[in-house]
Amino acid sequence: RQTRRGASCVPRSPSSHPPRPASPELAADKARDYYIFENYIMDDILKLQAELAAVQAQESAHRLSERNCVELILKLRELKLVDIVYTQSGREYVTPKQVVKEIRKTLSSHGGRLNVVDLQPLLGIDISFIESKVDEIVKEDDSIRLVEGELISDEYLDSVAYEINDALAEAGQLSFGQLTKRLGFSDSFLREIIESRLGSIIKGTLERTELFTDAFILRMKSRIRGVLFALTRPTNVSTIAKRFGFKESILIAAVQEFSAQKVIEVSLQGRGGGATLVPPIYAKMQENQASSFVQQNGYIDLDALHRLGVNNHKKFMKDMFPNAIPLSTVYITETTLETVEGLAVEEISSRGFADIPPLLPSVCDASDVAPAISASNAEMLKNCVGPLEDRYLVANTLLNDLEKETEAALRELHSAGKLPTVSPSAEQPAEDESRKKGKKSKKRESAKKPSSNEGLRKVVRGKERTRNWPCCAE
Fold first, then answer.
1. What phi-psi label fits residue 126: left (phi over 0), alpha (psi between -120 and 50 degrees) or beta?
2. Which residues of the chain register pLDDT less than 50?
3. C-alpha angle with apex 207: 203 to 210, nearest 5 degrees?
4. Which residues, 6+ apart, have CB-to-CB distance to 397 below 8 Å?
5. Disulfide check for 279: which of 47, 146, 231, 322 has CB 3.0–4.6 Å away?
6. H-helix or E-strand containing 177?
7. Distant-in-sequence, close-in-space partners of 191: CB < 8 Å, separation ≥ 6
8. Sheet holding 276-278, edge to edge
9. ω into 358 cis (within 30 of 0)
10. Residues 384, 394: contact at Cβ < 8 Å?
11. In 3D, which of 147, 253, 136 has the Cα closest to residue 192?
């Protein structure tokens, strides 16, 4: 609706409108109803009141005595026409439905928590009947439960949850020990109450057996962030938690959160309170020192890694030096291995064998010889026999030359008559028996201490073959 220029566009309130006048028909109906009520209905009500007073004033001709009432009730109960329960006084009877109502009413009047034993003096009924009705109530009504002899309603548990939430908001943290002592509940039932109402009534976070508010956790995470920034060396989680008053679970969760968000790249090594926090500055120092040592020496031993504080040397070396070759007590670079290969090949070419330990780094011991030879790609080293006595690699050409020289020496001794003459027929059984004993002893020795000295076994077999040479048989 358009208004004139300058007129107000604000609508008037309902009170500013004048009341509408009532219609004449409505006023006439109201007057007629009032006249009927005053002249007819009210007279009937007064007559009924007078009749009731007269009846009450009369004395009854037949009255039942107390004994008659008891006998009548007993007869009705015997005929199973009524279902009633005796009270402890014996002067009153209660129906089972009324007992259930009384139990519910009494529970509500006590705030929703009541011991079943306390119902007997309050209701004046036998405790066994009360217990049976309590079981029926618990089965039929999910909002009421029986816990350790106490009837507890959900309304009471909600009030307990509100009380816990108020105490939690005031203190910032609550433990199950404090709550169980205060409320008189077991740990399992208290956990059930809290978990079912956490987030709806109780505003907080549950960590094992402790409750924290979100504000408390944020304050603790801020303190943890400051401590982690100041950390310069590996420190145990339990040590930090004990010194600064942190909860270990919150500390570990905060470290994992900071690492995922890349706020602080602190690595967590281990699990639980025995885990260790390693700051990034310390990890960088480890990497720098290990890299410098490897570049200068071409190897790094396990003792040096342990002195640097490296607990998992396999993972550390795989991340830092993926091409490093692991031996028993040391990691060597490919360049160092190639140097060892070249020196070993040179010695074998000149002398027919090579003494390996002096060619390896000085920190290596005899257990590092076999892994070093296995890691080698040199064909000459793979075709050699050994390592003999965890030291020597012997070329096959040298073994063949030794075998020929031994055969020639034996022939020369035989021609000079310096070898005893042995009858082949007499010596053969003894020789077979000695061979069997030798094989059994070798099997026992190999079972006790396995060895990879294939070259040594070849030499032994070569010596055994010399017994069957024609010069020995003659």
1. beta
2. 1-18, 423-427, 442-474
3. 75
4. 352
5. 231
6. helix 176-183
7. 176
8. 235-236, 276-278, 267-269
9. no
10. yes
11. 147
Distance, in Å, from the CA atom of 24 to the CA atom of 28, rounded to the nearest integer, reads: 6
Euclidean distance between CA atoms 175 and 238, whole angstroms:
19
The half-sphere exposure of 173 on its side-chain side, counting CA atoms within 13 A, is 14
Q: Are 308 and 290 in contact (CB under 8 A)?
A: yes
- Name which of 158, 288, 250, 105 is nearest 240 in CA terms: 250
Q: What's the pLDDT score for residue 441?
A: 52
| Token pair listed for 322 | 């993926």
Tokens matching residue 452: 């990879």
Sign of CA dihedral 179, 183, 186, 188: negative
Can you spell out the DSSP letters for 11-69? PPPGGGSPPPPPPHHHHHHHHHHHHHIIIIIHHHHHHHHHHHHHHHHSPPS----HHHH
End-to-end CA separation in angstroms for the chain: 145
Q: Which residues contact 334 (CB under 8 A, 6 or more apart)?
A: 323, 325
pLDDT of residue 315: 86
pLDDT of residue 4: 38
Which strands, in side-by-side order, build the sheet including 144-147?
Answer: 113-115, 150-153, 144-147
The per-residue DSSP string of 271-326 comes to SGGG-EEE-HHHHHHHHHHHHHHHHHHSEEEHHHHHHTT-S-HHHHHHHH-TTPEE
Angle (CA) 328-329-331 rounded to 5° is: 90
Residue 407: the pLDDT is: 82
Burial class (CB in 10 A: 0-12, 13-18, 19+), 227: middle
User: 77 with 84: CB under 8 angstroms?
Assistant: yes
Task: Say how far apart CA 271 and CA 99 lie, in whole Å.
Answer: 58
| Tokens, residue 233 | 């060396």
Measured between alpha carbons, how far is 151 from 105 in angstroms, rounded to an integer? 12
Write down the pLDDT at residue 465: 43
- Copy the structure tokens of residue 323: 């091409």
At 297, list the tokens: 């020496």
Contact 135, 142 (CB under 8 A): no
